[in-house]
Design a protein that fits this description.
The protein has about 230 residues and is α/β, with parallel strands linked by helices. About 20% of the residues lie in helices and about 35% in strands.
Length: about 230
Amino acid sequence: MVLNTKTRLHIFGPLQSLLTVSYSNYFCFLKSIDEDSSFYKEKVIFVDGGMQYAKLFSLSESSEQTDISDYFWIGDGDSHLGEVTLSPDKTHHLSIDKDQSDLAMAFQKLIPDEKNIHQIFLHGFIGGRIDHQLAVFGELFKWHKILSPGEMILFDADINRKVEIFKGEHTTQHKGTFSLFSLEKQNIKLSGDLKYAGEEITLFPLQSHGLSNEGFGPFHILSEKVIMLIRE
């Protein structure tokens, strides 16, 4: 029997993602990106309007079958106007009058107990107001430093577009345009099947030096600090 020793965290926000376009069941989506999920303990957080995604789980029927028994809702209700249909012990109501976002409060309240998070998948956090988008990226950079997961992946409604946040060595492949951004000054190394590669590329916070590279297959990124890869 294989023990689930690593946690895979799934966070759902108020915006549209590819799940609402392509998948009627979240476990079909998980299988599409990872055939073997037996090594993971799954934890789910619905952030305010992310409650819309609860229907993908049929939680009252599937928690024992799918190992999704560890789930919560947290929010102030400004993007979820309906009823929160989870039990009271799985809901965290926040005040609208606060100085941090619901996503930030979710990390603070629900994640510090987790010591072995391997991956974080986020849905419904791309698009909308630009100030909210910048705040999302800022929180993810911060919490990547604290939690040190292997990677964070934000999925968009376009199945070909996603944002990956990671640190250190990262091997991937992509055919098309991609960009790299940092929130801190750092040097990176890019190698592989790329239009632009380099042994020591200096990135400054949110500047354009990593903008619009092109991949033709597999490539390798080595970063000193947390970095963001945006695929188009």
